[in-house]
Amino acid sequence: MLKKTADYDAIVIGAGFSGIRSLWELNQLGLTVKCFDAASEIGGTWYWNRYPGARTDCDAWIYILNFAPELIEDWDYHERCPSQEEIQRYLSRVVDRYALRKHIEFGTRIAAAHYSDSTNLWTITTVDGLSTTCRYFLPATGSLSVPKAPSFAGLDSYTGEWYQASDWPAHKVDFKGKRIAIIGTGSTGVQIVPKLAPVAKGLTLFQRTPNYVLPGRNYAIDEYQTAEIKKNHDATWELANMHPGGHALKPAGRTIKGVADADKIRQILDHGWERGCFEFSMETFDDCFLDPESNETVSEYIRQKIRAIVQDPETAELLCPKYPLGSKRSPCGHFYYETFNRPNVKLVDISQDEIALYEKGIRTGSRAEHEFDVIIFALGFDAGTGALDEIEVKGSQDKSLGNYWTERPQTFAGVLVSGFPNMFIVCGLHMPIGNQPVMLETAMNWIGQTICHMEKSNLAKINVTEKAVDSWSDHANEMWNSAFLSKHAVEHRSWFIGTNMPGRPPRVLFYFGGLPNWKSWLDSEIDSGWTNMEFTSHAVTNEAAKGFPFGRDASVGGVSITAKKLESAVVPLQSDEIGMSPTDKFNLGSRACARYIDWAVKEVNDGGLAVKQDHLFHWWKALHDFVKSDSGRALIQQSPNTKAELDQLTSKLGVEGEAIGRIGPELVRMLTGQSNPLFHILREDLLFRMYLSDEGARPNRYAADYAKLLTSQRKDLRILEVGAGTGGTTLQVLRACSPDGQPFCAEYMYTDISSGFFKTGQTILKKWESLLTFKALNVENDAAKQGFEEHSYDLVIAANVVHATRSLSNSLGTIHQVLKPGGVVALVELTRLTPYFNMAFGSLSGWWLGVDEGRTGSPLQSAEQWNEQLLKAGFSGVDLAAYDFPEPERHSALLLSTARANNSTSKNLILPFF
Questions:
Q1: Does 166 lie in the same domain as 298?
Q2: Which residues does residue 10 pair with via DSSP β-bridges, in sequence order?
Q3: What predicted TM-score, i.e. pTM, was given to this entire model?
Q4: Contact 239, 249 (CB under 8 A)
Q5: What pLDDT digit, counting tens, does each position of 560-611 carry?
Q6: Long-range contacts formed by 781-786: CB under 8 A, 24+ apart
Q7: Which listed residue, 37, 231, 297, 550, has the most CB atoms within 10 A of its CB?
């Protein structure tokens, strides 16, 4: 069966600088592409931030796209620091110049992006519920694109006009003769203040933290300078690529400590001040951001400038930052400080005060009231992860990007995330801090080369290793933490590390090692043949996409077998005793669990209870997500409404009902750490009886019947059971193959991670004691080092054990290690998370061992996912799948797979590129 065809080869989210550059690159590769953007026109951040005075504070000649020579000749900027209007015109020109607009769907906001392991495709879903699929997913959503929303009390009561600078209305706003308040002193507030002051009746700036505002020194670019800019373009761009921040600046070649003479230091700083923008902070002294004493010299110089410019001493002092320069991003202003000399401009210090809105304006915590006709919120952005946090991004095995980034945002050099195959981030988290268009060219060149390599080499999937991600993320953290400015950034709520967002812990969101260092990481990866990447070929993914159900009629291990034959087995069940069909029992049990889960989630939420921050937090998330899901809501609606009705129902459901009735009422106490789950599950041997109950009984029987078929034809077979535990599956196999205790194979090796399990197994299986060998085996570790002969077993039985390990690849690798080529692994596995297993086993820490591998919703794998895991580990994939129930109730299966010889395995391909 052919692999599923995607709607597009690639989908890009965002139509700003990054999205446009991505579209061009993908077009050059000959791929079909689609771009979605929530705005009605191109521009990205430059579309939404059209507030008065909006302009870049980077030089026009490096604030450009640079993928083709004609781009330089086709466009002339008119100012050193281009305005928002001019930048948007520039981007529109580029889009139309290369016919990219036809690929963009405007006015479309994305709600979710989900990756499928079985099809190797991303499904991108809009807020309207429309879905589109692709092979490559490129979120080009920007690092400063999600505005920090105003959360001040009383906003609804305010009767005047209010605007958010980062979501400025398209229509013209009349400010003439109005009383205007501006809240925020970042780049946005710094640009708005001098723009609106001349037209306002009164303008008041509410300042929590003052900023170091460098002089912008903007000027018009005439035809003569334009000619010079174009002539020197290549050299300018090369210089920018050598600069840590992507600016066309050179190191000063001197330090304050080295100059020492105070007059000379001031002269150099004066020269830098007059040049403006980043020339002041980056081309005066090289130790400005490295040495606290040198930094204080430069910081005090700026404070003296503020005191010299602002005539009112009290206002000047309020405008003087007391923290080191560089702790927060320094904006470039255009007569910002001079504006405070106007009689209609006022500064209100709220560093020790809180503000709220009331019907006429703003009220401070000290009860001072200020009336305004217009309030403008210039509060900044949810930087780095903000845009992707607003989209439900789920990678391999339903790994949630939001959850993965909660504690410590991790990437490989800001372009790839482990567990999110074929997702290339464009100018987002972990990009070097600085001039983004220059960084963008480096990022897209790397992404383009990587995708080109995949297309030429017939590779379907790329995933970066966790080791590579850890290495990069550790490096990024070390670069930031080694800077003396880092602690000051935390204290003064810098968006560099996300502390501008209330309640958010400091996290390294950008790379502070500089553009050249970052580029060297990316270049090294290509030069080494992408050795930190795991590639999967189309041959493997095609094999993984044979279609389901898997082989219903197959020859496995040299014997002919059909799923239909296995599934036709008559298995005595508890449901038979109460006159209930197995599917009815399953559905009633699911409803009972759903009601208990619903009650528990409501109690935790309504009571503001704290869930333990260990493995129980993962369980809480799974329970919470279940209640919110469509399937969960449907089951809750069908379930009993009272405890008495629940007790009546569960009393009919055998051991499963006993487990539900015992665990359900304890859910909240378990989640909050007040009740020990093991006490309830182990009491009266409940856990052991759960293993022998109806749930999973049928696939265990299938494993026994398959073993009987094998051993009936060959008596020399060596069988090894992994994770045999208390012997539930073993008992089924022995009853089928040796009902009277007679020999039926050459060896039956009974293993588990600890010999502590053997006592129970030896007691239950005493009848077959002479046929069994007991030995400890940790299936995640090398079998040979544990005393097991490699490639010596014909059949390995693993019943509900592999999913309960930290690494599926390690565990399957160990099984492959002990199997002969052509030997068979019989996996009994839950293939779908059910409410019963969610509730019964979610409280146990072992249920969450796979979290670090990305199995955050549950440890379970679908049959499709097992097929892919087996192929990667050197097996044939799923040769045959026999299920417990027909659809839609099926949730457990026997999966048979054959071990290939080492020289023919289809593992992840890590291919050098020459």
A1: yes
A2: 33, 136
A3: 0.64
A4: yes
A5: 888 888 988 888 887 777 778 888 888 999 999 999 999 999 999 999 999 9
A6: 781/810, 781/814, 782/814, 782/817, 783/814, 783/817, 783/818, 784/817
A7: 37
